[in-house]
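hey m, so remember when u said the C-alpha cells were messed up on ur end? i reran from scratch. heres the input so u can diff it against urs
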Amino acid sequence: MASKRDIKRNVNNMVFDIVDECFSIQLWDESKTEKADAIIDEAADFQDVILTKINQAKSKGDFKVISKEIEDAAIEFVHKLNGLN
C-alpha cells in the first residue's frame, strides 16, 4: 500500500496536470475558456474532497476505495479534456 504522502502527491500532480492542460487549451483557443475553467473548478473541488477523505482514512480498505475513486476521476478528466480538443 502506498503511503498517505504518496497518494496525496499523486492527486496533487494529477490536478496540476489537468490545470496545465486547461491553460494550454485556453491559450490556443479562447472560445473554450469557459469550458476549461469549469474543468479547473471541478478538479479543484475533487482535490479538496479527496484530500479530506485521505486524511480521514484509517484502514487499508479505506485506501482501496479512495484509490479506485482517484482512478475513476482521472479517466473522467481525461475524457473531458479530450472533449475540449
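this time it looks ok to me. Residues 4-84 form one domain. if urs says something different then somethings off w ur setup not the seq
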